[in-house]
């Protein structure tokens, strides 16, 4: 009878290679599925519920709508810029990858702050940065 | 050198281009919101709102909706493929996805332009 | 009636007229051209029945084996080109070294676990060969690498054939070099994460293999192993084989 194979072979453990997983690939799928829910909800709310100025302003001072909009903002910025990153990386050499990441993180954080500033305007009646 | 483009490749480029267009629209959306929320723009809020509700803008909205829907439905197809589904039936899956997009855009345009039903 | 065959010979198009016959393949037409019209025409072939994978070329813009492509269904104007993404040596003969060096990098041979001294009984009911059987027929003709548009964007991408072979070995419970293979196929740019699931390879494969299926399965194996640890790789199959061995 065959012997049971040992899972923890010490020689193999020492030279255990790194198993590489593309987190950006996984998060792209994950945020894509979330976007189906969040963006679908966003479109539904903005087109089938009351869209007069006063009601939209009131709705965005409710914490649920604020929370949904902030989540949508973060997810959509990640999904969009991560997609752009994978497009750009295909046309770049490897030594430039770090610069793509730095630039795109900068753009992403700037966009999220900008979006938060717009949502801030509904709570405090004026945006923080934009004049 | 001519090379026949497979259906999957054409849809892939459609997915990329619509993705970039949606990313561009995100910034347009933020710019417009900032503009009407700033103290200078807020007095024109109602004027802007009445312009945006005119038929050409609604038609542009429908184009945007079609772009987002194409990206979303094709994205679902790609995620199904990542789970090993609809790989051999790839062409059928793509045509089904395109049909779903067309039908949903048609329904949405009936909702946005109720006059068409009369 | 004559069929026009336009052959791309090192970038220059040569036009030949071939008499239309019933039951004629593209390879038959190439032989006719070589024997009767231009003896300097070069192309590869061996078995003529679609099992050696030598005569892969781009016929009317689509990859196919010349010996398995009927000339009569292609119309009266047929273009024949060498495979894409592979250096051309002469006319329709390509240098397959790049294709096979990609193949070699995933160690495409079976290396058994030393601990198992007896042959493992793989009964049909256990299903442990089910996934592997779907991808075993590969004849390494290179059509999938030629059809893959990811290779034209990222030349170092391993391509469908090599990744399909890697999956067959990773899915094999008797195999010992899973870690080494996964570290190659999981690497950025060359590995499975570069695949955009165009599924062009599925459309052109003369053996009806779906390399995309192997690639997405490898992606899921890599994710499962890194999130849940080594033991959780291929849970149902490892259980099946343990029951058989015990």
Sum this structure up briefly.
Chain B is an all-alpha fold.
Q: How would the blueprint of this fold be written?
A:
The complex is a heterotrimer of chains A (131), B (118) and C (246).
Chain A: H1 10-14, H2 23-48, H3 53-59, H4 63-90, H5 97-124
Helix pairs in contact in A: 2-4, 4-5
Chain B: H1 7-37, H2 39-42, H3 45-52, H4 55-82, H5 90-112
Helix pairs in contact in B: 1-4, 4-5
Chain C: E1 2-9, E2 12-19, H1 26-37, E3 56-59, E4 62-65, E5 77-81, E6 88-90, E7 93-94, H2 97-105, H3 130-133, H4 143-147, H5 149-153, H6 160-170, H7 178-185, H8 200-204, H9 211-228, H10 235-245
Describe the structure in your own words:
The complex is a heterotrimer of chains A (131), B (118) and C (246). Helix content of chain A is 72%, strand content 0%. Residues 1-16 of chain A have low confidence and may be disordered. Chain A has a single domain, classed as 3 helical TM bundles of succinate and fumarate reductases (Up-down Bundle), CATH 1.20.1300. Chain A has 131 residues and is an all-alpha fold. Chain A has helices at 10-14, 23-48, 53-59, 63-90, 97-124. Chain A is elongated and about 50 Å long. The longest helix of chain A is centred in the middle third of the chain and has 28 residues, at 63-90. With 118 residues, chain B is an all-alpha fold. Chain B has a single domain, classed as Fumarate reductase/succinate dehydrogenase, transmembrane subunit (3 helical TM bundles of succinate and fumarate reductases, Up-down Bundle), CATH 1.20.1300. In chain B, 80% of the residues lie in helices and 0% in strands. With 246 residues, chain C is of the alpha+beta class. Chain C has 2 domains: 2-94, Roll (Ubiquitin-like (UB roll)), CATH 3.10.20.30; 97-245, Fumarate Reductase Iron-sulfur Protein, Chain B, domain 2 (Orthogonal Bundle), CATH 1.10.1060.10. Chain C contains 10 helices and 7 strands. A 5-stranded mixed sheet of chain C has the order 2-1-5-3-4. A two-stranded antiparallel ribbon of chain C has the order 6-7. In chain C, a hairpin with a 2-residue loop joins strand 3 (56-59) and strand 4. In chain C, helix 6 runs antiparallel to helix 7 (178-185). The longest helix of chain C is centred in the C-terminal third of the chain and has 18 residues, at 211-228. The relative contact order of chain C is 0.13. Chains A and C meet through loops of A and helix 7 and helix 9 of C.
């Amino acid at each position: 009878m065959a012997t049971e194979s040992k899972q923890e072979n010490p020689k193999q453990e020492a030279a255990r290679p790194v198993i590489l997983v593309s987190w950006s690939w996984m998060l792209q799928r994950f945020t894509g599925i979330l976007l189906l829910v969040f963006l679908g909800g966003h479109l539904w709310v903005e087109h089938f519920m009351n869209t007069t100025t006063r009601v939209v302003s009131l709705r965005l001072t409710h914490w649920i709508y604020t929370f949904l909009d902030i989540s949508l903002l973060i997810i959509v910025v990640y999904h969009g810029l991560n997609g752009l990153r994978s497009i750009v990386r295909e046309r770049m050499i490897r030594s430039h990858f770090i610069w793509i990441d730095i630039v795109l993180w900068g753009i992403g954080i700037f966009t999220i702050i900008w979006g938060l500033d717009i949502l801030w305007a509904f709570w405090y009646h004026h945006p923080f940065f934009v004049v | 050198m001519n090379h026949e483009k497979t259906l999957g490749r054409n849809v892939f480029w459609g997915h990329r281009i619509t993705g970039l267009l949606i990313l561009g629209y995100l910034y347009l959306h933020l710019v417009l919101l900032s503009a009407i929320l700033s103290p200078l723009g807020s007095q024109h809020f109602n004027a802007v709102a009445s312009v945006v509700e005119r038929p050409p803008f609604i038609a542009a909205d429908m184009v945007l909706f079609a772009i987002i829907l194409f990206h979303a439905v094709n994205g679902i197809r790609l995620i199904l493929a990542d789970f090993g589904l609809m790989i051999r039936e790839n062409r059928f899956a793509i045509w089904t996805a395109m049909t779903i997009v067309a039908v949903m855009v048609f329904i949405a345009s009936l909702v946005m332009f109720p006059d068409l039903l009369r | 009636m004559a069929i026009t065959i336009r052959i791309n010979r090192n970038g220059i198009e040569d036009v030949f007229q071939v008499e239309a016959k019933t039951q004629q393949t593209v390879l038959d037409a190439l032989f006719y051209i070589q024997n009767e019209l231009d003896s300097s025409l070069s192309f590869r072939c061996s078995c003529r029945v679609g099992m050696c994978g030598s005569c892969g070329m781009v016929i009317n813009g689509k990859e196919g084996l010349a010996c398995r492509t009927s000339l009569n269904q292609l119309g009266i104007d047929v273009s024949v080109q060498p495979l894409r993404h592979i250096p051309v040596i002469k006319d329709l003969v390509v240098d397959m070294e790049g294709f096979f060096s990609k193949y070699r990098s995933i160690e495409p041979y079976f290396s058994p676990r030393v601990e198992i001294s007896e042959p493992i009984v793989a009964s049909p009911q256990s299903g442990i060969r089910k996934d592997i059987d779907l991808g075993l027929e590969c004849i390494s003709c290179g059509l999938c690498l030629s059809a893959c548009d990811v290779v034209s964007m990222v030349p170092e991408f391993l391509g469908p054939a090599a990744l399909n072979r890697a999956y067959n070995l990773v899915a094999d419970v008797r195999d010992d070099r899973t870690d080494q293979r996964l570290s190659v196929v999981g690497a950025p740019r060359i590995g499975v994460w570069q695949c955009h699931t165009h599924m062009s390879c599925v459309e052109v494969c003369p053996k009806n293999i779906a390399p995309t299926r192997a690639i997405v399965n490898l992606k899921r194996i890599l994710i499962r192993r890194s999130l849940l640890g080594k033991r959780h790789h291929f849970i149902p199959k490892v259980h099946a084989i343990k029951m058989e061995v015990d």
